[in-house]
Amino acid sequence: MNVYDQLHEIRDELERRGANVDTITVIDRIIDQAEAERDNPLSITQAMMLRHLLRQRDVLNNESVYTDVLALAGDLDERRPQRRDEDVPDATADRDTRPQHTRGFYKKQKDKQRP
Length: 115
Hints:
This protein is mainly alpha-helical. The chain has a domain at 3-79. The protein is built from 7 helices and no strands. Helix 3 (46-53) packs antiparallel against helix 5 (63-79). The N and C termini lie far apart (58 Å).
């Protein structure tokens, strides 16, 4: 989703949570500023958008707005699946199947192919 769509998703989620009126007002103001990005094909994650919101002056200056956005960001982190050691690919497995060669190896191969 682009910035504009992510902001709408965040606003909808804040409304579902019963966020403060000031929070909705600040998000609406930021959505108005992002209107130019409506058709932008650049996609960003909701976590990136929430981090960006937490750095905005309007959010930082109002404690209730900051708390609402921070709570949403914290819940997003909790929903993210945790990495397990079993899910991480073995970094040494590929080395066994494809050996790394030095420059000299390839130079010798090239010299062998010349008549």
